[in-house]
Design brief:
The protein contains 8 helices and 7 strands, in the order βαβαβαβαβαβαααβ. By secondary structure, the chain is α/β, with parallel strands linked by helices. The chain has a 7-stranded mixed sheet, with helices on both faces. It is globular, with a radius of gyration of 17 Å.
Amino acid sequence: MEKHVVVIYPHPDDESFGAAGTIIQFREQGVPVTYLCGTLGEMGRNMGNPTFANRETLPEIRKKEITEASKVLDMELRLLGYRDKTLEYEDRNEVANHLKEILEEIQPSLVITHYPEHAVHPDHNALGAAAIEAVRLMNPENRPTVWAQAITNTHVEDLGKPEVINDIRENFDRKMDAILCHQSQASGVIRNWNQSDGVADDLKEQAMERLGVEAFYIWKY
């Protein structure tokens, strides 16, 4: 069993869409989970539908949303305070050393993050790379395992099959509860599904088809 799991993603909602089912599984086993959230997603384009946020109010709204989602997922939340859509311009070594300090304090046995260059968004790629570098900088005896999540359409043909494939459908209701805490973002994402695939008869079924499995590559150092 894991001792402590640390999840490192850049935005409020990355944890719910990407790893909520896995987080729930660990919490059910009694494993502590800490989410290091890189930014407040303050440059996000979704302002709710109908609109209930603007550029000034969005950071506070998203902070409330991630706080609520963290309660649903029963995990500790730490906000890293970086600025949304600028992580790719931060000094990679500085971010890695910042993360390394936190990891050395928490001493997790597992870190979950994005797979660099296979995570679609520049913030995802940058923070994933910094997290992987942070673990590399640690004393090899104390290094946690890293699970890296790839979300590009070509990741299987580029990287092979992920080693960790979690079927999280048993916990799907709670995953959806966590996603729906991120009201400012979730409505836009779900609306995009409907635009691309036609309106689903059963939104939950469609969501389960897309999000009912969470897969990760084990990073090799």
